[in-house]
Amino acid sequence: MTEQRIEENREGTIIRLQGGFYDVMTPEGEVRSRARGNFRKRGISPVVGDEVVLHIESETGYILEVKERDNFLVRPPVANIDQALLVVSAAEPDFSAHLLDRFLVLIEAKEIQPVILLTKMDLLDEVKGPAVREAIAAYRKIGYTVIETSSETLTGVEQVRPLLAGKTSVLAGQSGVGKSSLLNALEPSLDLETSAISKSLGRGRHTTRHVTLMPLAEGLIADTPGFSNLDFPYDMEIEDVRWSFPEFVAVQDDCKYRGCLHLNEPGCAVKEAVEAQEIMSSRYENYGMFIDEIKNRARRY
């Protein structure tokens, strides 16, 4: 008896890219697929998180269409994200407000909801502890959700779970901060590879090599490769940075000049708030560095 050939169109979400294939999650299950041959000529590069239309022939899928994206992160390459869980460590490697602010700007500029997850709280000692806890309080004052966690003691892990339900989340952070360990603590069956921190370099190896969307806590989450540094994309402008510091935006209407960049302008409400210690000086310093970085990049290109 000849096997019946099945042909139909389905909609789904790309959850994995591997070896030139796209694994697409549909209501009927996962389908391993290829992209249409003319995508490259048309400048279309499907990524994890893309909503797509598939044509199914027997058990093979061909991506016919990539739907319009709500948002897109270049690094890591992932689309249609509801929230970003920004993982920073309290120790090993040391807490870095500069790196956290860089991640926050990238996420805020894409209008993605950020959540700060502070890992390895069990490793925080009496010397560095007060400064880290002071920073935690300051970020909470701005309005950011900050959850203190430890994959070893499981402190705070269950506070993360309700945030994931019904959302597509991306887990992002520097190499070695404990992203995969946190996911394993949330769902031990994942058994994701982890590695120890290099004592000489103060950072971890990249144990996550591909972006993958995984079902977790009634939502989808992308574990992403970690990064030792993070450059701003070429399409990021100074205005994107200016609007990505919520505490600056909250007072900028009181600036003397409309469109104030909060750098050298007189009558700047942001600078006055920094002097009054109502805005973190580290945030203001990082803001100035980010603005300079984008200005210098514009001059080079």
Automatic annotation (TrEMBL):
<dbReference type="GO" id="GO:0003924">
    <property type="term" value="F:GTPase activity"/>
</dbReference>
<feature type="binding site">
    <location>
        <position position="260"/>
    </location>
    <ligand>
        <name>Zn(2+)</name>
    </ligand>
</feature>
<dbReference type="InterPro" id="IPR031944">
    <property type="entry name" value="RsgA_N"/>
</dbReference>
<keyword id="KW-0547">Nucleotide-binding</keyword>
<protein>
    <recommendedName>
        <fullName>Small ribosomal subunit biogenesis GTPase RsgA</fullName>
        <ecNumber>3.6.1.-</ecNumber>
    </recommendedName>
</protein>
<feature type="binding site">
    <location>
        <begin position="173"/>
        <end position="181"/>
    </location>
    <ligand>
        <name>GTP</name>
    </ligand>
</feature>
<comment type="function">
    <text>One of several proteins that assist in the late maturation steps of the functional core of the 30S ribosomal subunit. Helps release RbfA from mature subunits. May play a role in the assembly of ribosomal proteins into the subunit. Circularly permuted GTPase that catalyzes slow GTP hydrolysis, GTPase activity is stimulated by the 30S ribosomal subunit.</text>
</comment>
<keyword id="KW-0378">Hydrolase</keyword>
<dbReference type="GO" id="GO:0005737">
    <property type="term" value="C:cytoplasm"/>
</dbReference>
<feature type="binding site">
    <location>
        <begin position="119"/>
        <end position="122"/>
    </location>
    <ligand>
        <name>GTP</name>
    </ligand>
</feature>
<dbReference type="GO" id="GO:0005525">
    <property type="term" value="F:GTP binding"/>
</dbReference>
<dbReference type="GO" id="GO:0042274">
    <property type="term" value="P:ribosomal small subunit biogenesis"/>
</dbReference>
<feature type="domain" description="CP-type G">
    <location>
        <begin position="70"/>
        <end position="230"/>
    </location>
</feature>
<dbReference type="Pfam" id="PF03193">
    <property type="entry name" value="RsgA_GTPase"/>
</dbReference>
<dbReference type="GO" id="GO:0019843">
    <property type="term" value="F:rRNA binding"/>
</dbReference>
<dbReference type="InterPro" id="IPR012340">
    <property type="entry name" value="NA-bd_OB-fold"/>
</dbReference>
<dbReference type="GO" id="GO:0046872">
    <property type="term" value="F:metal ion binding"/>
</dbReference>
<dbReference type="InterPro" id="IPR004881">
    <property type="entry name" value="Ribosome_biogen_GTPase_RsgA"/>
</dbReference>
<comment type="similarity">
    <text>Belongs to the TRAFAC class YlqF/YawG GTPase family. RsgA subfamily.</text>
</comment>
<feature type="domain" description="EngC GTPase">
    <location>
        <begin position="79"/>
        <end position="228"/>
    </location>
</feature>
<keyword id="KW-0694">RNA-binding</keyword>
<feature type="binding site">
    <location>
        <position position="262"/>
    </location>
    <ligand>
        <name>Zn(2+)</name>
    </ligand>
</feature>
<keyword id="KW-0342">GTP-binding</keyword>
<feature type="binding site">
    <location>
        <position position="268"/>
    </location>
    <ligand>
        <name>Zn(2+)</name>
    </ligand>
</feature>
<keyword id="KW-0479">Metal-binding</keyword>
<keyword id="KW-0699">rRNA-binding</keyword>
<keyword id="KW-0963">Cytoplasm</keyword>
<dbReference type="InterPro" id="IPR030378">
    <property type="entry name" value="G_CP_dom"/>
</dbReference>
<dbReference type="Pfam" id="PF16745">
    <property type="entry name" value="RsgA_N"/>
</dbReference>
<dbReference type="InterPro" id="IPR010914">
    <property type="entry name" value="RsgA_GTPase_dom"/>
</dbReference>
<feature type="binding site">
    <location>
        <position position="255"/>
    </location>
    <ligand>
        <name>Zn(2+)</name>
    </ligand>
</feature>
<keyword id="KW-0690">Ribosome biogenesis</keyword>
<dbReference type="InterPro" id="IPR027417">
    <property type="entry name" value="P-loop_NTPase"/>
</dbReference>
<comment type="subunit">
    <text>Monomer. Associates with 30S ribosomal subunit, binds 16S rRNA.</text>
</comment>
<keyword id="KW-0862">Zinc</keyword>
